[in-house]
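Chapter review: from sequence to fold.
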Amino acid sequence: METTMDVQTAVVRNPGEGERLWFTTNLTLIKARAADTDGEFGLIESVAPPGASPPLHVHSHEDETFLILEGELTVVCGEETYTAGPGAMAFLPRGVPHTFRVDGELPARFLTLITPGGMEDFFAKVGRPAEGPGLPPAAPPDIEALTRWSEEFGMRIVGPPLPPA
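The token string follows.
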């Protein structure tokens, strides 16, 4: 079966361009939304501080692929734990519990390819417009909003974040 896309124009976002959000502890740039790619994918760029780790969670609708640009992540997917540094790729399939933690003393910068697209809207719902170029001020995440919107987007939180390294 052949599929065709309705999108008839290129989408180009230069370095630093995209919808800039403060999402929990991270600076997140939405580089491409599902609407830009006929639903094929969403793409976000994140800068996360040392120690940042989302709760262990499961996606029911989408896969995530991380491409680490700077820094180092410990990635947990199912029962396996991996170390991923600059240039590494980590594919995290839907239906499998996963999380990560930023290791080292510097922030990590990475791309997340979300397939199919749509989950990038979760970041916009839970995050807020970035008020500056850097990371958000340190503050505890709004767990209630995170949980509510996770469920809305077909994601379940199944465990805590990874402990500090």
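Two observations follow directly from the output. The CA atoms of residues 28 and 46 lie 4 Å apart. The chain has one domain: 19-131+148-157.
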